[in-house]
Amino acid sequence: MRYTIALAGNPNSGKTTLFNELTGSHQHVGNWPGVTVEKKDGYYRKDRNIAIIDLPGTYSLSPYSAEEKIARRYIVEEKPDAVIDIIDGTNIERNLYLALQILETGIPTVLAVNMKDELALRGDKIDYELLGSKLGCPVVSISARKDKDFAELMTAVQKIAGNRHTGYQKCWTDGDTEERIADKRYKFISGICRETVRKGQTAEAAFETKSDKLDKILTNKWLALPIFAAVMYVMFALVFSENLFGFEGVLSPANYLVEFVAWLWGFASDGVAYLIRGTPVWLQGLVNDGIMGGIDGVLSFLPLVLVLYILLSFLEDAGYIARVAFVLDRVFRKFGLSGRSFIPLLMGWGGCSVPGIAATRTLPSEKDRKITTILCGFMPCGAKLPIFAMFISIFFNKYAPLAMFAIYMASLVVSIIVSLVLNKINKAETSAFIMELPQYRWPTLKSVLIHAWEKIRGFAVKAGKIIILAGILIWALQSFNFDSFNGKNYEASKKAIAEAQAAGEDASDREPSNMCEADASFLAGIAHPISYVFRPLGFGGTIHGHDSWKPTVGVITGWIAKEMVVVTFSELYPEISQDVDDTDYVGKGSAVLTAHEVIAKDFVNPAAVWAYMLFNMFCMPCFAAVGATRQELGSGKETLKAISIQMLTGYIVGLVVFLVGSLFYV
Description:
The chain is of the alpha/beta class.
């Protein structure tokens, strides 16, 4: 038979780990209908007839937050065949509140009491049979991180699936108020726990001391922020460094992966070029530059994004990221926001701003929601990472980890400053911040890799949808002008070939073409006037004796999707695929110019490169993020205000960085 099983549980109860173990690779990530809260569904890997729906983590089914509404609506209205409620055995009393609410719906439910390994360390004992009889449902003990076989759990689920008659009798009456119902539930839970749970005193104290010792260091008033900065720097070194931890010539793991991917892509590119040899010049340009060049622009930085996701997933699963939110609450509160705002911002740190913006709906204060929505656009999301990686590898390669660290810290500093300004304008009381700090746990490799794969797959799919079409469009606009269609370019190219042959040059590989130089193209004509807007930031207008219009194209295409900045530069600067020589900023006049030398001509100095990167980070985010902003703020007027603040912030930050930085590049 076919069954649909809903997976419910409190945050940090191990629900996601169990879902990954049950479904393996047979899972899909999307959004719940009508909302942008993430939805996961998949099939039990040992029986494809069993569909598993991963409900958002929530402490109750009270219809207040988006997560609670989704979980409640799905269980009550969709009526799955059964529910697996994951319970953290080390916090069983708190977790049982959600369990009672689920049982009260009448849906067949199995309680999966997780963390049995940690219960053993504490010396705690739970009478699972008695607990099950008290609640009128099966209770199974598991360790989601370590168990390899969940046959007992799934057998229990299949036995009760579809049976609408549960053995649980609710502990309250229909005439009770909401407060009285909650009070009766908690009293009922306390009574059950007194009968079924036995705490181990000595082992528990030892376990808690171990956790407390770590928190005394990692959340210390004076040490927490320096440790956070050190952790971030080490993470960036593992991703970007070419002299890892001072060892000359030792690449970071991510850079080894970059070289391997580049080697594989080289074979693919050569193969495609071989297949289309002899075809018209415009077709070769379209395929090699428009399509393959655009894909190469993002693919070359995808390994960096993947390794960064792996490291962030490791820190999240270990429980450290929750401590960061707790620590930053002290900082954020001084500037008018609570640490709760860090959670949506964190989702944009290397991830995607869209779910971060959607997560702002869980903030209790309207002021916090509006400000945090704006600040989400300032985060260095995964789509912006290739921009930073490209420019840093070209201009600041020797200091790559430090440069990337500076960019991420800049996102926090600027966010705090903007928050302070907006709070001065819109004064309101800061909401309280209460969060659960999960136990420190050593993440499993499988869980970390699954989390990283989900993120990188989403990034690649999102980027892939627009890269090819946008790459073709950029190639076409920079390769043609009006003279391409009246024969003038074709005749001019024939004349140039004839003159070369008359001068004794070998022009056998050249064919007449109606294509034009990039500086005379449609794209140059569109971007050149706009580029003067950015001249105060060190790029645009006339620089080093020629028109600097190409970086402006990257800014504009970046508003469609930030990945397009790298695609644009790959199209406009084919030299990016060459090796980079970063010994000097100004080119040495060699016959074959490197990307370093060619791109440098469009920037006044290295400070302008920094201004460009930071403008792209703080200016208006991609269209998808703007759409999410519109949905959360509820009006076009508020969305326009948010975009205006982001654009103004990006311009001011870029201007200040260029002016101050130029003092060091006279």
